[in-house]
Amino acid sequence: MRFEKHCLWGLMALAALLPLLVRDQYVLHIAIMVLFYAVLASSLNLVVGYVGEFSLGHTAFLGTGAYTAAILSTQYGWPMWATVPAAGLLAMLVGVVIGGITLRLQGPFFVIVTLSFAEVLRLAADNWIALTNGPMGIAGVPQPALLAEAGNLDAKQFYYTVAWLLLALTLYLSFRFVYSNAGRAAVAVRENRYVAQSIGIQPLHYSMLALVLGALLSGMAGGFYAHYISFVGPEVFRFAFMVSMIIMVLVGGKGTLVGPLIGALLVTFLEEYLREAKELRLSIFGLAVIAIVLFLPRGLMGFVVQWRASRRADAPKVAVAPSQPERRAA
Amino acid sequence: MELLPQYLANGLVTGSFYALSALGLTLILGLMRVVNFAHGELYMLGGVMGWWATTRLGLDFFTGLVLVAVVMGAFGWLVDRFLIERIRHQGEEPGILLTIGLSIFLANTALLAVGTAPLKVEAPISAGPMFLGPVVLTKLRVFAVLVCALLIVAAWLVIHKTRLGRAMRATFQDPMAAQLAGVRTANVYAATFAMGTVIASMAGMLLGSIYSAQVAIGGLVSMKAFVVVILGGMGSFAGAVAGGLLLGVVEALWGGYVATGWVDIIGFALVILTLVFRPYGLFSKRAERA
Question: A52: domain range?
C-alpha cells in the first residue's frame, strides 16, 4: 500500500512538472492523450482488476460521456465545467443499468453481454440521427470561453491541466475505493466468490460499486475527450478503443493502481513510435500483444510486485504466492 | 404481407450462413472455452485464400475448398499448439487478449498482402434466379445453403460418430479422466481448434463466392458469431443452427417491416434479452458447465 502510494505521488508530481519543461505542442498532445488513457485504463481496472470480471463494454461509458458533453454543449450551450460532470453522471446511470443486468453473469457470458451493450450503443449512435447526427458525428464542440484568445500552446496547457486534475481525481477515488472495506470485499469476491459469500459479502453489491465508479470516471474522461478533440462520432464506441484500454490494463498489471498508468504510458508511446513502421505498424502491434500475453502474463507491475516480494523473503527461500491464483476453467 | 414468404426465405438463407459461420466458434468457445476474437479473421483468411486459389492458381471451387481446409487446418493446429496451449486453464482473460492480438495481426497482415478491395471467389455455378412458388432465390444461394447443410452434418458426424469425436467429448467433459483413459488431450484440443478453424475458413470461402471476400470483414463476422453462439447455447450444435436461423429470420423480418438501418442491433438486443431471461442460451439446458 505504501509502495503504491509513493509511486502514485511520484508519477503525478512528475506529470505536474511536465508542462513547465515542455513547450512542444506535439509532445504536449501525446502527454494529454497519455493522461486521458490513464484515466480510462484506471477506471477499467476497477472492474477488470478488482472485481475480476472481464468487461469489454467500457466504451459504452466513454461514449455516453462523450456524446453527453457534445450534445449538452453544442445544443444547450453548457460550459465545459458543467458538461464534464454531467457526462460522468449520465455514464454512471448507464453503468447502473448495464451493471444491474450484466453483473449477474460470469465468465464468457459477461464478456459478450458487455460487448453487446457497447455495440448496441454504437449502432444507436450510428442510426439515431436526430440526436447524434449519425455517422457524421458532432463536430465543433465548443472550447471553454477562457481559451477564446489563447494561443494553441496555452490551450494545450489548459487541457493538460484539466486532464491532470481528472487523473488525480481518478486516482484519489480509486485509492479510496481499493483500500476501503468495499474494495477489500470486491477483492475477496474476485479471489473466491463462494468464500466471500460465506462470510456475508454480497458479490453483486461490491462489483456494482466498482463498475459504477468506473463508469463515472470514464464518462468524465469521455466528456473531456469531446471538448479536447472537439469532435465526437460513433468511433468512440468502437472495439479499437476497447482494445487499447484492455491492453494498457493488462500490460501495466491489472489489480494494481500504478499498472494502468504505466500501461497507458507504454502503449501510447508504442503506438506513436510504431508510426515509423507505417503499414507494418498494426501487424507489429498485434504481435506485441501476443508476446505480452505469453511472456508477461501478470503485467509489468505484477512482475515488480513479485520481485519485491521475493527480495523481501530472500533469506528463507519462500515461493511467492501469486496474488491472483489461476482460475481453473471449471 | 405478400412479401412475407420472400422475407422468410431470405431470412432462412442468411440464417443458415450465420449458422455455418458460427459453427466453428461454437466448438472453440463452447467446448474449449476460448473466447476467440480471431474467429472472424479465420473466416476472412478462408475467403482470401479461396479467392487466391480460384483466380490465381486457377483451381476449381471444390479443389480450392479442399486446399483451404487443409492449409487452414494446419494453421489452426499450429496456433493451438504454439499459442493457445500456453494459456490453457488460466480463465478467459489471456485467451481474449491473445486472440485479439492474433486478430489484429492477421487482419493487418492480410491487408498488406491483398489490400482492401473486395475479392470475388469464383463460384461453381451461375447466379441465375430460381422460382419456388412465390419465392425467388438465386441458384447460387440455394447451392450454398445445401453446402452449409452438408458441412454442418459432416461436422456433427465427426463429433458424434468418430473416434476423434468421442475423444473430444471425453476431454471436454473431464480432461483429467480422459487423460487417465489414454486420450492425448493436447492433441484433442489442437484438433478441436483446427476443426473450428477449418469450418470457419470454409464458411469464409463459400460465402466469399456469394458476397465477396473482404479483409476488413473479420470484426463483423466475429460479432455475429458470438451472437449466434450465445443465442443457441454454448457448445450446442443444434443450438448454433437454431440460433443462426433465428437471427437470420428475425433480421430479415425486421429489415423488411421496420427499419433497415437498425438491423444489426437485433442480434445484440436478442443476446441481452437471452442472457437476462435464459442465461444459458435459448436451447441448452441448465446442465451446461458454467
Answer: 2-237
